[in-house]
Amino acid sequence: MDYKELYNMSQDLDFYASKLTINKPDGIVSFKLNSCQQNIIKELENNSLLNVYTPRQVGGSILIAFLASHYAIFNANKSIAVITINMDSAKTLKNLCENFISQLPLPITYIVNNMDRIELSNGTKIIFCSINSSSKFRGRGYQRVFLDNIAFAKDNSFYDFYCSVFPTITSSEQTKVLSINSGIFNDTEYKKYWLKNLYIPASQVNDKYYQEAISKIKNIISEDRFKHEYEGEIVV
After folding, report:
1. Residue 41 to residue 146: CA distance in whole angstroms
2. Quick check: 98 pLDDT over 80?
3. 236/227 Cα distance (integer angstroms)
4. How many other C-beta atoms lie within 10 A of the C-beta of residue 80?
5. What are the phi and psi torsion angles at 197 (to 5°)?
6. Is pLDDT of 111 > 70?
7. From CA 166, how far away is CA 151, in angstroms rounded?
8. Collapsing DSSP states into helix, strand and coil, what is residue 188?
9. What count of other Cβ atoms lies within 10 Å of the Cβ of residue 221?
10. In which band, very low, low, confident or very high, does the pLDDT at 174 lie, cut at 50, 70 and 90?
């Protein structure tokens, strides 16, 4: 891979995506950003604190791993936090990041790759944890913070995180925070913490295979549940 191609990947997320593959139920396929993912990326460019509500199965977690891996590869000496609802989800996102990073013949290597951390030879680190163990982030700022389905956190987990950890990890002037939550649109408590809330109903996802799958689901689950989890009609 020549430097021109590397540079193009660093500047163009669609071009970077075109070099990657992902595992689907029917096998390994080329990765292509769908309209929902592209919409989120566009909004993130202009918002430092973005909270997104999406329908289920549009690739929110994959997008987080995609953006985290891209930022880690092409930005030296940075810190990235990936915080999920539980440790199983954190492990899944770490595996996705590893998969994206390992697919490309890059001039960087792993320095550390253990249970909850990836550190690359360019000095950039990605830390993975659940919201209940996020106190490990205290004491330093992060340039990118990704939150996966944290709106589903029980009890006061997010409130405690927001009060004690969030101010520290977002202290860098370069910090961007992206929160993606799928299948929930009528949350009133969580959305008040964000400068920008974005709602993407299933009808706005421009993908033929996704729409085919959605039409089948619509015939199986109740109308109210479909509106709540896929169309976001119950927004307060």
Report:
1. 13
2. yes
3. 14
4. 22
5. -115, 125
6. yes
7. 15
8. coil
9. 12
10. confident
Number of H helices, E strands in the chain: 9, 10
pTM of the entire predicted model: 0.86
Using the Cα atoms of residue 176, residue 180, residue 184 and residue 185 in order, give the sign of their dihedral: positive
Take residue 185 and report the two structure tokens written for it. Answer: 């649109």
> Contact 26/171 with Cβ under 8 angstroms?
no
CA quadruple 165, 50, 70, 209: dihedral positive or negative?
Answer: positive
List domains and CATH numbers for the chain. 36-230 (3.40.50.300)
Q: For residue 101, what are the contacts with CB-CB under 8 A and spacing of at least 6?
A: 69, 72, 73, 118, 120
Whole-Å CA distances, 173 to 88, 117, 142, 187:
31, 23, 9, 29
